């Protein structure tokens, strides 16, 4: 995960013409990301927002809250910029198959699966791990 940079993440755009406060942002999907990887990132994002709102053992962070980013059935999907050197289950299979062999080889995909499970201590009691929504 250390290989990930902001350019590798899904983008977002404001959710329609109606202005809300705080604003709501529609997630723009990154085509290269597998569903399992996206779900894992959404789960981490949820945990971050919860910690930001009610930090344990430290003062709350001043400033603007994290963006309220939401999945939407009509969301745009963009190719995005795929990082190199991730485990094979981070990349979307259909996207990988659409690439020319030399481009796919240049990703230097690690031939193993990343374990996307989160420790039970990171989840609220009785809460199920994050599940894919698409």
Characterization of this structure:
The chain has 134 residues and is of the alpha/beta class. Helices cover 23% and strands 12% of the residues. Strands 1, 2, 3 and 4 form a 4-stranded mixed β-sheet that branches. The protein is globular, with a radius of gyration of 17 Å. The mean pLDDT is 77.
Please tell me what the overall shape is. globular
Hey, roughly how much beta strand do the residues contain?
A: 5-15%
- Derived from helix and strand composition plus strand pairing, the structural class reads alpha/beta
Supply the number of helical segments. 3
Topology:
Elements: E1 11-14, E2 24-30, H1 35-53, E3 68-70, E4 77-78, H2 93-98, H3 101-106
Parallel strand pairs: 2-3, 2-4
Antiparallel strand pairs: 1-2
């Amino acid at each position: 995960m250390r290989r990930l940079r902001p350019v590798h993440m899904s983008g977002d755009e404001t959710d329609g013409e109606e202005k809300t406060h705080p604003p709501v942002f529609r997630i723009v999907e990154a085509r290269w990301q597998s569903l399992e990887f996206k779900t894992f990132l959404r789960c981490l994002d949820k945990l971050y927002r919860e910690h930001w709102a009610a930090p344990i053992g430290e003062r709350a962070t001043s400033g603007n809250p994290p963006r309220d980013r939401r999945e939407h059935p009509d969301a745009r999907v963009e190719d995005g910029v795929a990082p190199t050197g991730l485990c094979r289950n981070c990349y979307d299979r259909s996207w990988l198959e659409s690439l020319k062999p030399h481009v796919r080889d240049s990703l230097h995909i690690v031939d193993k699966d990343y374990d996307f499970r989160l420790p039970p201590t990171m989840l609220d009691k009785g809460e199920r791990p994050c599940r894919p929504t698409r």
